[in-house]
Amino acid sequence: MTNPVPLREGLFRETAAGPTLLASCCTACGHTSYPPAPRCLDCGREAQEPVELGSDGELLCATVVHMGNHRYPPGYTVGYVTMPHGVRVFAQLAISAGEDLPAPGTPMTLEIVPMWREQEQDVLAYRFVPAPGKESAHA
User: Taking a C-beta distance cutoff of 8 angstroms, is the pair 127, 11 a contact?
Assistant: First the structure.
């Protein structure tokens, strides 16, 4: 068995507190970008510092994709999740087939899981799962 590889280096990591997304924050204007950017997407400056977004967010919207691709059959769910610093992350959502889409405002939790296999290795990526027992991070 081989070690899993991340979808892309520098997007996420596991910490003692759980998984977190890695972003960048401009030291000049305070704009936070995900994925991390070498230059601020707001003011254009290169003064960026790394910031962890954590694992808790709030669902902005979700939809079911009815057209499959080479990794996922039709019927998978994607959505935007609002994270700390106002960052909106587009990601796959772990929703069971036939289950209703979670409503906007639903608390969501990040998980890092093997999403597919490539060249005989598991590829780690992130997705969000509903966390109805948690308080909204943006309430």
Answer: no
The overall pTM is greater than 0.90: no
Question: Is 61 within 8 Å of 71 (Cβ atoms)?
Answer: no
Structure token pair of residue 43 = 């003011």
**Burial bucket for residue 78 (CB in 10 Å: 0-12, 13-18, 19+):** middle
The sign of the CA dihedral 121, 131, 79, 95 is positive
Alpha-carbon gap, residue 119 to 125, rounded angstroms:
16
Confidence of residue 133 (pLDDT cuts 50, 70, 90): confident
- Domain ranges for the chain: 11-130
